[in-house]
Amino acid sequence: MLLPELPPLPAMTRAEAEFVDSYLEVVDLLGRINPARGTHTYTALRAAQALVGRAVALKEALTLMHIRGESEVYAHTLTEALRVLDGERRANRVTMPPV
């Protein structure tokens, strides 16, 4: 069975793409650390250790955007990219589970 084809990513600069990728990696790690959703301390510990490096990558992507003169974040375009990359589901793991 073939998976449904995803819509294409919107046109972004390389720095914007790195920003989105790094952001989602941070979100994924925060979801693994979330005490309301986790089950093992070791999993949370490993995610917390990795979070430091991914936060640096996120900062570097934003720094590069700023240095290149990309002073605005185009929320519509980046939101579209986040949706294509399943950002809503991934970010949901950071929130509290329903009662």
Q: Kindly state the mean pLDDT as a whole number? A: 93
Helix content: 55-70%
Ends distance: 35 Å
Helix and strand composition category:
mainly alpha
Portion in beta strands: under 5%
Low-confidence stretches: none
Number of domains: 1
Query: How would a crystallographer describe the biggest sheet?
Result: none
SS elements, strand count: 0
Principal-axes shape call? globular
Helix count equals: 4
Describe, in plain words, how this protein is organized in 3D.
It contains four helices and no strands. By secondary structure, the chain is mainly α. The protein has one domain. The mean pLDDT is 93.
Present the secondary structure layout.
Elements: H1 14-33, H2 41-67, H3 75-84, H4 87-92
In a few lines, what is going on in this structure?
Helices cover 64% and strands 0% of the residues. The protein contains 4 helices and no strands.
List keywords for this structure.
single chain, 99 residues, mainly alpha, 4 helices, 64% helix, 0% strand, globular
